[in-house]
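Input:
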Amino acid sequence: MTLKQNILESATQLFATNGFRNTSISAIAKSAGAAEGTIFHHFKNKEDVFLCALNRAKGLIIDAVDEQVNSRHFANGLQMVEGVINVYFCLSEQLSWELLLLFRSHSYELASVNDACRTTVETIYNCFLNAMSEGISMGKEDGSIADVSTSKTAVIIFGMLNGLLRFDIDNIFPVHTLYFDILQSCRKILTNGSDEVQI
Amino acid sequence: MTLKQNILESATQLFATNGFRNTSISAIAKSAGAAEGTIFHHFKNKEDVFLCALNRAKGLIIDAVDEQVNSRHFANGLQMVEGVINVYFCLSEQLSWELLLLFRSHSYELASVNDACRTTVETIYNCFLNAMSEGISMGKEDGSIADVSTSKTAVIIFGMLNGLLRFDIDNIFPVHTLYFDILQSCRKILTNGSDEVQI
DNA sequence: AAACCGACCGAGCGTTCACTCGGGAAATTG
DNA sequence: CAATTTCCCGAGTGAACGCTCGGTCGGTTT
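Output:
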């Protein structure tokens, strides 16, 4: 582990927990065991640190999705969608710092003025959405999913996961205990009748 | 409109758009047409300004829900739930500053250490959740809604709305165009079969 | 009229923080 | 080995900002 990587990892954790503005360079330096000057040797400025941390998170998230979804085989489309949902829940624990970083408002605010940031954020979201869409269109062909709009349904289900996960993060409701209920709700959205809904 | 109210309104808009840390007292003062000292005459400190703005938002939101849901009569439970969903979408435009303020991370972070803030945030969320729960249990009695867990389903649907609304706010997807698709998905969650799903 | 009081003002203070800079140590190159 | 580059350090700087404080002004009370 090089010092530069160490800085990025510390920055990820601190930005994720305290936000961009509430995280000082000196705090990152202390956490990474580096001097303040060292950070500005490796990165242009504080914003660059955030961007590089977000890029690192993008790599980790995409790799995880590739490994746990894209390289796996699913019996049918519905199961693939459920696989994506499951991966998202798992990643919220395995890569909690990285997802928290993505959820920070600074990511979106920076994305609206910085092209590099926008593509990074979009890439992460599309990674999930594409996998979800692929599962839905596969399911529409093999009959496990009803005739719904692929892209719209993907956005709705993904938005639902995001909203519920944020409830968990923000300590509003312990949504993790609702995993099976959420899966059930997603099945209802994807299948029209109750006949196909079973555990 | 007193100067104090003016300050709270300006604070709401600035906190909502820029966040707590990125909003300076001087900016609020300038926007409200007041001097910095005046703000500290009416409020203990910057955090107090935020808290009072959040409390003001709570009042506005609860009044709106009371007026548009609790005082209205619905033909059945399902329609009441759809009414709550509709109100939530409407409020995201009518009271956009107030909802944005609630969505700011500072609200949750402050809520975890400040009792007054926590009850304020909880009150706002419970306002929607209670209305939703009431609609669901009513629907289970009149037959318009299937036999689902009232509280769990309320959280899931509300979480879905929250997640999708944030997609809109964060400029990830223009979710407002999906209103009818979202309603349709909620109906599927609330009713087991496709027989009851119709526009 | 005198005393009082709340609303309001804005200069000033102390702190925090992003960023610079000059320099040292280690690695790389010729 | 000398020269050069890379990595790393931490004191110093200037700007931003939360908050204090002494003061003015208009209305109310005695």
